[in-house]
């Protein structure tokens, strides 16, 4: 039995059982009372017995017996018809009680269904929405108001978190720039010590990693905010070709076999900067977390149902439960928090945030043969003439 509508069925059966129980009790009481009334002879209706020994008395007795037999037969027929009519009425009452019970149950539970549907529509990207249930101040209204209060607290918490990430990332750039400038000044001195040069090189490398991490934080905060003023027509296929061209040396260094099928129909509308970063992150993830002499398959196409970008790689067999967490910040398949060189652990989480901000869908699947499949689906857009170029507003 499906769980959907279980409460409705429960209320329906409860209402029907109560209604039928009351009807059965009423019928039993009516039957008992009518039986007592029919079986008790009315006073004065039975003739007085005639003196015994006379023919008239015998005839009178026979008439009395015949009348009693007829009366008993009539009573039996009437009781039989009454029982049949009662059973028919009981069946009709059962059907009506089930129908009435279902209507009442659906009517009572309608506010709860509306609350459930509205709550399902609300996610981290639209926490500003509220249930706004109207009606009398009953338990359902109290539940809806409680959910609205919870959503308001969640919205404030998410907004504070995003502001903190964005502000902290922005403010940290100043001391990082100061440290980098100090290193350059120290290294630029005449005849710097070899130890100082080595230390400066290591510090500069770590500064680059921190700067890369801050860039990821800022981009993640912007994607999660979801307000873009630079929405343009963008080709996912063109972005994929640009990302592959930029990473061609790394692909050659790992001897990766590349199979790219990027069509011209993968058009969507959104932030060109964010979508470019999304595609680059997916491509970077496929290269960075790939084995030497491995392979990469990239497909970009689209139709009326959406613009799609699919990136597949070979490799070890992965657990789907762990792959599902890759869309969260700092989640990696390895046990260590430090990933490959240059990896901040924010790559796929940024992809997830950008896709969600554009109203798209990201699906991460562990391939049964080994490796990972990343599929991005965004709303399709139709370019108009020569203006339909990547990054050109329409």
Which labels suit this protein?
394 residues; alpha+beta; Heat Shock Protein 90; five-stranded mixed β-sheet; elongated
Please provide a written account of the structure.
With 394 residues, the protein is of the alpha+beta class. It folds into three domains: 6-41 and 53-121, no CATH class; 139-225, Signal transduction histidine kinase, dimerisation/phosphotransfer (DHp) domain (Helix Hairpins, Orthogonal Bundle); 231-387, Histidine kinase-like ATPase, C-terminal domain (Heat Shock Protein 90, 2-Layer Sandwich). 59% of the residues lie in helices and 12% in strands. It is built from nine helices and seven strands. The chain has helices at residues 6-39, 55-121, 139-187, 194-225, 236-246, 248-253, 272-288, 320-323, 347-357, and strands spanning 231-235, 257-262, 267-271, 295-303, 306-313, 361-366, 372-378. A five-stranded mixed sheet has the order 2-4-5-7-6, covered by helices on one side. A two-stranded antiparallel ribbon has the order 1-3. The chain is elongated, with a radius of gyration of 41 Å. Mean pLDDT is 77; it is low at 36-46, 335-342 and 386-394.
């Amino acid at each position: 039995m499906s769980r959907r509508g279980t409460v409705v069925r429960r209320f329906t059966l409860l209402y029907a059982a109560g209604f039928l129980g009351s009807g059965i009790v009423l019928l039993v009481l009516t039957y008992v009372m009518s039986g007592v009334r029919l079986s008790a002879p009315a006073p004065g209706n039975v003739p007085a017995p005639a003196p015994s020994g006379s023919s008239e008395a015998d005839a009178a007795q026979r008439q009395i017996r015949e009348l009693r037999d007829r009366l008993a037969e009539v009573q039996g027929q009437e009781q039989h018809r009454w029982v049949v009519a009662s059973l028919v009425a009981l069946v009709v009452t059962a059907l009506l009680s089930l129908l009435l019970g279902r209507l009442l149950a659906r009517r009572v539970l309608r506010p709860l269904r509306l609350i459930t549907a509205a709550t399902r529509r609300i996610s981290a990207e639209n926490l500003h929405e509220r249930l706004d249930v109207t009606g009398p101040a009953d338990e359902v209204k109290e539940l809806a108001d409680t959910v609205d209060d919870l959503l308001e607290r969640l919205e404030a918490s998410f907004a504070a978190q995003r502001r903190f990430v964005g502000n902290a990332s922005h403010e940290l750039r100043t001391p990082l720039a100061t440290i980098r400038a100090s290193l350059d000044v120290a290294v630029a001195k005449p005849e710097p010590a070899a130890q100082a040069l080595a230390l400066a090189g290591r510090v500069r490398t770590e500064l680059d990693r921190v700067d890369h991490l801050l860039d990821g934080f800022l981009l993640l905060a912007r994607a999660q905010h979801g307000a873009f003023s630079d929405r343009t027509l963008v080709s996912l296929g063109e972005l994929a070709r640009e990302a592959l061209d930029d990473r061609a040396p790394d692909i050659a260094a790992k001897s990766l076999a590349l199979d790219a099928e990027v069509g011209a129909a993968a058009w969507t509308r959104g932030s060109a900067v964010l979508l470019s970063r999304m595609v680059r992150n997916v491509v970077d993830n496929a290269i960075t977390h790939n084995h030497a002499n491995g392979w990469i398959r990239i497909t970009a196409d689209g139709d009326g149902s959406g613009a799609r970008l699919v990136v597949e790689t070979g490799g070890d067999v992965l657990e789907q439960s762990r792959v599902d967490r890759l869309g969260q910040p700092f989640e990696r398949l390895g046990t260590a928090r430090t990933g490959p060189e240059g990896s901040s652990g924010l790559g796929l989480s940024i992809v997830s945030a950008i896709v969600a901000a554009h109203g798209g869908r990201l699906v991460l699947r562990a391939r049964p043969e080994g490796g990972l499949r990343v599929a991005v689906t965004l709303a399709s857009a139709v370019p108009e003439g020569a203006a339909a170029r990547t990054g050109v507003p329409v």
